[in-house]
Design a protein that fits this description.
The chain has a single domain, classed as SPOUT methyltransferase, trefoil knot domain (Alpha/beta knot, 3-Layer(aba) Sandwich). It contains seven helices and seven strands. The protein has about 180 residues and is an alpha/beta fold. The termini are far apart. Helix 2 links the parallel strand 1 and strand 2. The longest helix has 16 residues. The protein has a seven-stranded parallel beta sheet with strand order 3-2-1-6-4-7-5, with helices on both faces.
């Protein structure tokens, strides 16, 4: 790990973060929650808000997939997504539901400025984001898909969406011209 210059848990908690909060609504698999913690740690998001019956640390299955990231990522549990959204919105976050709807926009159309704060909402593996929660969102984003399923595991969708947001914040010189 030293050769890879990995941060300690304490260093990871203190590191500068991207202005992204993840709101997980009623995620039934604790393994998916653990994966969300790992993604949040990898991409240095500010926090994870776990809502409803979503499992939260300490939890054996979260620990198995998070591999310690549940200790490096700031998290909080809320009784419901509405309360978490209210908290994020009051802190200046734009609420973006990652869900396929008739009005959702392609994820790649999101181009946040460095000062814009984003809260990404992800829903249950089977039923998605609750209708009441969708009404609280400022916009809906979807990951364009061409296969027959038009469905991704929530942990996979979360990874794609977080990377797309982080990529928008990073300004680097292109390798290829």
């Amino acid at each position: 790990m030293e050769e890879l210059e990995r941060k300690s848990t304490a260093e990871a908690r203190r590191a500068e973060k991207f202005p992204i909060v993840l709101i997980l609504e009623n995620i039934r698999s604790a393994y998916n929650v653990g994966s969300a913690f790992r993604t949040a740690d990898a991409f240095q998001v500010e926090a994870i808000y776990l809502t409803g019956y979503t499992a939260f640390p300490p939890h054996k299955e979260i620990r198995k997939t998070a591999l310690g990231a549940e200790d490096s990522v700031v998290w909080r549990h809320f009784p419901d997504a509405g309360t978490a959204i209210e908290r994020a919105r009051s802190a200046g976050y734009k609420i973006l539901a990652v869900e396929q709807t008739t009005e959702s926009q392609a994820l790649q159309s999101l181009h946040p400025t460095p000062e814009q704060k984003i809260a990404l909402v992800f829903g249950n593996e089977v039923t998605g984001i609750e209708s009441e929660t969708l009404l609280l969102a400022d916009a809906c984003l979807e990951i364009p898909q061409g296969g027959m399923k038009h469905s991704l595991n929530v942990a996979t969708a979360l990874g794609i969406a977080v990377w797309e947001c982080v990529r928008s914040y990073i300004k680097e010189k292109p390798i290829l011209k």
